[in-house]
Write a structure and sequence with these properties.
The complex is a heterodimer of chains A (about 140) and B (about 120). With about 140 residues, chain A is mainly alpha-helical. Chain A has 6 helices and no strands. Chain A has 2 domains: about 30 residues; about 110 residues, no CATH class. In chain B, strand 2 and strand 3 form a beta hairpin. Chain B is extended. Classes of the chains: A mainly alpha (about 140), B mainly alpha (about 120). At the A-B interface, helix 1, helix 2, helix 3, helix 4 and helix 5 of A face helix 1, helix 4, strand 3 and helix 6 of B.
Chain lengths: ~140, ~120
């Protein structure tokens, strides 16, 4: 393979990768990537994947309830979910570790809520329209009344 | 769980509800016991957690069995930048455990579908 052919192959591969990655990454340019990146770098390893997603969903529910008319948090649903996440931790922790874990989880929840509030406020119309749609179509998936 | 653990648990659960669900004015109705827990013991823990998170060279986390981060040392950036689309118009970020719609809004239903909570 000569140099020109190699360059063509590399360029083709680059375009292919750009084509594959482009739609997914460009689709969401409203996410505050750097905030999430900084917030999460030290948090992996505290929650399971499922727990972390659930904490995000609670944070999203809280953010939407603050920003959007007609969206109200369901405190009972939140209580059950938060208690479930807090209680479902490793069994071998000392009291200090247990307290540190609870603290990390609550900080993760608060941080996620804050970033989602910022994202929602930056494009409130879409954020709230989407929340209303989620509430109407999949109420069981939400933490709203 | 120990007695202290239960107290702290209750305090944090109460705090979670207050933070997540109640208007600020209603937070003033927190009872003296809950306030003492949240403001005292928990305050120390929050301070330590914030200090630790601000000092990223100090590795302190709980990599329990089954909880280990799914990336190796020094590979957080490529892990964070991963994304996939479970269906047209939805993008999920594994590092964030959250999915978004194309218009930038959170795809709550798909987050639940993908991560199974």
């Amino acid at each position: 393979m000569n140099i020109l052919t190699s360059i063509r192959h590399v360029a083709g591969a680059t375009l292919l990768l750009a084509g594959l990655a482009g739609p997914a990454l460009a689709a969401d340019d409203l996410r505050i990537d750097d905030a999430w990146k900084a917030a999460l770098v030290d948090q992996h390893g505290v929650l399971t994947e499922k727990q972390h997603a659930q904490v995000n969903a609670i944070a999203y529910g809280a953010a939407a309830a603050l920003l959007c008319d007609g969206i109200d948090i369901d405190a009972d649903k939140v209580a059950v979910a938060v208690t479930g996440v807090l209680a479902d931790g490793p069994k071998e922790l000392s009291e200090d570790e247990e307290l540190a874990r609870y603290t990390d989880i609550m900080l993760t929840l608060g941080t996620a809520k804050g970033i989602l509030l910022a994202e929602g406020a930056l494009h409130k119309a879409e954020f709230c329209a989407n929340a209303a749609d989620e509430k109407a179509k999949k109420p069981a998936d939400t933490f709203w009344k | 769980m120990t007695h202290l653990g239960k107290l702290i648990f209750a305090g944090f659960a109460a705090a979670a509800l207050l933070v997540a669900a109640q208007p600020a004015a209603e937070a003033k109705t927190m009872g003296p016991t809950a306030a003492a827990i949240v403001g005292g013991v928990a305050g120390l823990a929050v301070g330590a957690a914030i200090a630790d998170s601000a000092n990223q060279k100090k590795k302190k986390k709980y990599y329990y069995n089954g909880y280990a981060p799914p990336y190796g040392p020094g590979t957080y950036d490529p892990y964070f930048n991963q994304a996939f689309s479970p269906t047209a118009g939805v993008v999920c970020y594994p590092a964030q455990r959250l999915c978004y719609n194309n218009n930038g809004s959170v795809a709550n239903h798909w987050t639940r579908n993908v991560y199974g909570y």
